[in-house]
């Protein structure tokens, strides 16, 4: 295949055959690896072949910044590293298709089957996009959007997407032009030598193999920005969406921020649970949760009676560890979340239940809520692209006895 030159972890589950490469780790492997995902378990979403870029010339890689700016510039990776403050942020990337498989079982969508492992977390090192934009000085009034383009060559042109200028210039939103992941150079699948990282938004905004940034009056016209990454009204079937494409893919339906979501990881689907009832014996249910836009998860609730009653789970926020001390390192630059209130990472939850209660129940349901009181809905919202599926996550209880 065009990607045959890349070494890939055989443990990853391939979701779209041999090419292009799209994969997620088995959910329990991802979860057991902890807060930071080792690069070999990080999910991959490629729309086409990975551009073949010489390892030794990465410092000469250039990004052109142009359009409605006072000064157009071309930066080499070396320029970015030498001229701007180097920062590191922990960020969870989530594919908009995470959990799509559940929807495809009910009503097939246009997209392929992601389980619940279409997300991963890394320490991303780079420079603030806002620094670059302030340097090139967008033209006041006219400039409204920032368009990003990658080097991959797809059937309908390059991969590209855009951001509102006001978001792209906000340090609070933490957008980075990044060249390292957990202290190591990006791997080819994750955008070597340099990519955009957009915290709190769907993964599709984090353009890999970044080549060009254009400041513009209008949003990106790239094919996938327009005809993908949208949640279309549920009345529209995938078949009609294909035929009536130009009618339905309205900019109104564009998705940017992630929706609130959670999953049960333990027990996993189909796992035989040992529910032998003994006095004081408890079972620990575990999982993850996240939300978009930097919003913190403020409750995770578990139901053993199909949503009639709910109990609070205990939440742990490993991201907070990075808020206590500023961290300086020559490889990482500044890792300083001490003044940052945003939540850009997944959090973990546990719920301990007497085994006797679990043995009497037939399913576990979980729902998370964020600080804006966005909560996961009971019902699915089947949509043609199958994106942002975040209904209650449910696992049937299968007993081993
Ligand atoms: N950037 C380019 N140039 N080409 C792509 O196919 N896929 C996007 C985004 N950036 C993509 C891209 C999508 S849909 C996602 S979810 C993330 O990259 C996935 O990043 P990862 O493969 O590093 O996990």
Automatic annotation (TrEMBL):
This protein's name: Nitrate reductase
Family: Belongs to the nitrate reductase family.
Record: residues binding Mo-molybdopterin: 95
Reported function: Nitrate reductase is a key enzyme involved in the first step of nitrate assimilation in plants, fungi and bacteria.
SUBUNIT field: Homodimer.
Shown part of the complete sequence: 56 to 456 of 870
Species per Swiss-Prot/TrEMBL record: Wolfiporia cocos (strain MD-104) (Brown rot fungus)
């Amino acid at each position: 295949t065009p990607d045959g030159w890349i070494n890939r972890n055989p443990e990853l589950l391939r979701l779209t055959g041999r090419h292009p490469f799209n994969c997620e780790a088995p959910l329990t492997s991802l979860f057991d690896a902890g807060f930071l995902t080792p690069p070999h378990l990080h999910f991959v979403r490629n729309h086409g072949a990975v551009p073949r870029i010489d390892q030794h010339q990465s410092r000469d890689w250039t990004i052109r910044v142009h359009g409605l700016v006072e000064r157009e510039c071309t930066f080499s990776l070396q320029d970015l590293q030498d001229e701007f403050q180097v920062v590191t942020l922990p960020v969870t990337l989530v594919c908009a298709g995470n959990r799509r498989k559940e929807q495809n079982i009910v009503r097939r969508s246009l997209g392929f089957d992601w389980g619940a492992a279409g997300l991963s977390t890394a320490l991303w090192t780079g420079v603030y996009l806002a620094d670059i934009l302030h340097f090139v000085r967008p033209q006041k009034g006219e400039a409204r959007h920032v368009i990003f383009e990658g080097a991959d060559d797809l059937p309908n042109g390059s991969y590209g997407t855009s951001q509102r200028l006001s978001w792209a210039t906000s340090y609070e939103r933490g957008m980075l032009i990044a060249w390292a992941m957990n202290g190591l150079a990006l791997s080819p699948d994750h955008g070597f030598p340099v990519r955009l990282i957009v915290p709190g938004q769907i993964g599709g905004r984090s353009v890999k193999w970044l080549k060009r940034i254009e400041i513009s009056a209008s949003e990106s016209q790239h094919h996938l920005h327009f005809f993908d990454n949208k949640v279309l009204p549920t009345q529209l079937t995938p078949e009609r969406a294909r035929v009536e494409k130009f009618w339905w893919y309205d900019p109104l339906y564009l998705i940017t921020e992630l929706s609130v979501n959670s999953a049960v990881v333990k027990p996993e689907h189909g796992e035989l649970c040992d529910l032998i009832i003994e006095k004081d014996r408890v079972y620990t249910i575990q999982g993850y949760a996240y939300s978009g836009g930097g919003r913190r998860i403020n409750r995770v609730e578990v139901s053993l009676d199909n949503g009639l009653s709910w109990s609070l789970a205990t939440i742990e926020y490993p991201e907070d560890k990075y808020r206590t001390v500023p961290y300086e390192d020559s490889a990482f630059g500044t890792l300083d979340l001490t003044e940052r209130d945003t939540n850009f990472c997944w959090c973990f939850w546990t719920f301990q239940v007497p085994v006797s209660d679990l043995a009497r129940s037939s399913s576990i349901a979980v729902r998370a809520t964020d600080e804006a009181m966005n909560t996961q809905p009971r019902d699915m919202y089947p949509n043609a692209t199958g994106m942002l599926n975040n209904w209650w996550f449910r696992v049937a209880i299968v007993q081993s006895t």
